[in-house]
Every structure is written in structure tokens, then in C-alpha cells.
Amino acid sequence: METLANVLVGLVAALHLYILVLEMFLWQKKPGRGLHGFDPDMARATAPMAANQGLYNGFLAAGLIWGLIAADPTGFRAQVFFLSCVVVAGVYGAVTANRRILFAQALPGALALAAVLIAR
Q1: pLDDT value at position 110?
Q2: Backbone angles phi, psi at 98, to 5 degrees
Q3: C-beta separation of 15 from 118 below 8 A
Q4: Which of 3, 1, 2, 7 lies closest to 108 in space, CA to CA?
Q5: Residues near 105 by Cβ (< 8 Å), separated by ≥ 6?
Q6: The predicted structure's pLDDT at residue 35
Q7: Could you tell me which of 27, 24, 77 has the C-alpha nearest to residue 55?
Q8: Distance CA 40, CA 43 (A)
């Protein structure tokens, strides 16, 4: 179960690294605009906000990676903390921005969190 938990944590970290790249570097290009259906003007106007969100996603990924490489109990605690942050951010995003975020962010985070807790 520990291997499954580590794989899931790694996948959630990779997801948040992808979101970082999308929001910080590709927001005004086709992949970024297609995410929300923005035209070039809207993408340009919202690019600073998106880059800020991307940076926060990078912090989540960094925390999860730290949790994977740190020895226990620090690694376990970091994983639980940062996965909890992922779940809370996903639920908040689903309520305030787009319901898809619940399935794209909160659900993977919750599954990884459950695996980490069960593996303990």
C-alpha cells in the first residue's frame, strides 16, 4: 500500500507541476486559452492572475515532493498537510470557479490522501 500511496502522491505532484506550467507559461497560448475558452484578449488580461495561481500550484507540488523524499515522520506529515491543502483548494475552486476542479484536483488529492493514511 505504501508504494501505491507514493505513486499517487507523485501523480498529484506531477499534476500540480503541469498546472504551474500551464498557468505561468502557456496561459496566453492555445493550451492555456483552451482550458477556459478565453480569447487572446481575455488571456492577456488574466495572465498575471493565472501566473500567481500557477506559482501556488508549484508550492503544492514542491511540498508533495518534499513529503516523498523526507524521512518519516516529516515525510508523512508533509504529505498529509500538502494533500489536505490540495483537497481544500480543489473544493474551493469547484465551488467558486468551475465544478470540474472537484474532479481534476480535489478527487486525486483525496485519493492520494486516503492512500497515505491507510498505508500508515
Answers
A1: 98
A2: -155, 130
A3: no
A4: 7
A5: 15, 86, 89, 90, 93
A6: 81
A7: 24
A8: 5
Contacts of 110 (CB under 8 A, 6+ apart): 83, 87
In this prediction the pTM is 0.94
% the chain with pLDDT above 70: 100
Taking each helix axis from N to C end, the angle separating 74-96 and 107-119, rounded to the nearest 10 degrees, works out to: 160
Residue in this structure with the C-alpha cell 497515505, named with its chain if needed: 116
pLDDT, tens digit (0-9, with 9 covering 90-100), for 8-45: 999 999 999 999 999 999 999 998 888 888 999 999 99
Task: Give every CB contact of residue 101 below 8 A, 6+ residues apart in sequence.
Answer: 90, 93, 94
Question: Under 8 Å CB-to-CB from 109, ≥6 apart: which residues?
Answer: 12, 83, 86, 87, 90
